[in-house]
Write a structure and sequence with these properties.
The protein is α+β, with helices and mostly antiparallel strands and 401 residues long. Helix content is 35%, strand content 19%. The structure holds fe (ii) ion. The site of fe (ii) ion has 7 residues, from helix 3.
Length: 401
């Protein structure tokens, strides 16, 4: 079973998404992004890459709509001598993993290769709620939810109790994830201890070898997040390393996003990457979403679906490297100016900063686009090693000296 809350008219929208062979025997099935995440969640791009008599499928998306498109490609390759399909996930989030069980219908042998640190993420509800609970220790997160729209009950409930707000949120997420079968119980685990190092010019990466591919363990968006490198096509699929909502969770690492984008930029400079895209680049849906929500891109390269050639690839990774670095630096500047402050206080102060990176994030509202300014602040403080103390019900952070 996959995601089941598709709303009327959405199938028509999904049908606009493209299926494109972006390199020989490398297929990109464009996913979906809407202007209302909590009602019409994103669906990741899905990639199918032939490797001799095997087919690697990277991510499976959210909506059942995509199953037939995946099966059609699998049937075609099966008829052409492919014997096995290997499913891998850049991450375990539901928008990447809700059609995992489509491989059972492939008519081929299959394996679901799952990186060990990501196993717990596939327990969707427990994983998300644990992240909310970690943030609860630092500030009243539910009071940060929009008072307008469908998150209003969560905000209002937070005035009564944290537990009530959490229960309402949890009930909604439970419904969202209901009945999704992601095959986590049938996965072949890639142990952390089995990771190997590989060098590409100046850049050394750690990950798992899978056929001709290298699954790079970047631990950016999630603890077990991977990007996929295909040396034959000089192709880098960066998953959610390059998405505007990072760090989307308290367990996300903005520092790993910055350093990973830097490594990929260097690989492009040194001629190892000439084709790059990620899990949510979309020319069919993204421009509309940006327009509807009045979001201004920090760089036009955001609006592409696939970066082609050395220069575009360098620009793509550099743009995200700069974007993340500016977010971090702006927050640390604000905090240094303010002195001791709580996360909501720093978040409020950040709203006064006028910078393309921060402006994009200010304009994202959690129910519409799942990028939370308060979570960004919390992660930056954590990774900067800011010390904190509890005073009454408030957790106060001191800027680093
Ligand atoms: Fe994603």
């Amino acid at each position: 079973m996959s995601y089941r809350l598709t709303i009327p008219g959405q199938e028509k929208e999904l049908r606009r998404s493209f299926t494109r062979e972006i390199a020989p025997d490398v297929w990109m099935l464009e996913g979906y992004i809407s202007d209302y995440f909590l009602i019409k969640p994103a669906s990741s791009n899905v990639f199918l890459l032939r490797d001799g008599d095997a087919l690697l499928m990277l991510d499976s998306g959210t909506y059942p709509f995509y199953r037939e498109r995946m099966l059609e490609l699998m049937r075609r390759y099966r008829a052409d001598g492919v014997k096995r399909v290997d499913l891998m996930l850049t991450q375990g989030h539901f928008d990447h993993a809700s059609n995992n069980d489509v491989i059972l219908e492939s008519g081929m042998d299959w394996r679901f290769l799952l990186q060990e640190p990501e196993v717990r993420v596939l327990d969707y509800l427990a994983d998300w709620m644990a992240d909310f609970r970690d943030l609860e220790q630092l500030y009243d997160i539910y009071a940060q939810f929009d008072l307008g729209g469908i998150t209003a009950p969560v905000n209002l409930a937070s005035r009564i109790s944290v537990g009530l707000a959490r229960s309402i949120l949890q009930a909604n997420f439970r419904l969202m994830f209901l009945g999704i079968r992601n095959l986590s119980d049938r996965a072949t685990i890639l142990p952390s201890a089995a990771r190997v190092k590989r060098r590409f010019g100046q850049v050394e990466l750690e990950g798992w070898e899978v056929g001709r591919f290298f699954a790079i363990h970047d631990a950016s968006h999630t603890p077990g997040h991977i990007s996929l490198y295909d040396p034959e096509n000089k192709l880098l699929l960066s998953g959610d390393v390059t998405v505007e909502i990072n760090p989307a969770f308290y367990y996300s690492s903005l520092e790993r996003c910055i350093s990973t984008c830097g490594q990929f930029r260097r690989m492009a400079e040194e001629g190892y990457i000439e084709l790059a895209t990620d899990s949510h680049r979309s020319t069919t849906f993204f421009p509309d979403v940006m327009r509807t929500l009045r979001l201004t891109p920090f760089d036009e390269i955001e609006m592409t679906d696939v970066a082609r050639g050395r220069e575009e690839c360098i620009r793509f990774f550099r743009a995200f490297e700069d974007f993340y670095s500016r977010l971090r630096d702006d927050i640390l500047d604000v905090h240094a100016r303010m002195g001791e402050a709580t996360i909501p206080e720093i978040t409020e102060e950040l709203r006064a900063v006028d910078d393309a990176a921060v402006n994009l994030r200010k304009a994202m509202r959690f129910q519409r686009i799942p990028g939370r300014l308060d979570v960004l602040v919390a992660v930056v403080l954590k990774e900067a090693g800011a010390t904190s103390r509890r005073e009454g019900g408030r957790v106060i952070f001191s800027p680093r000296a």
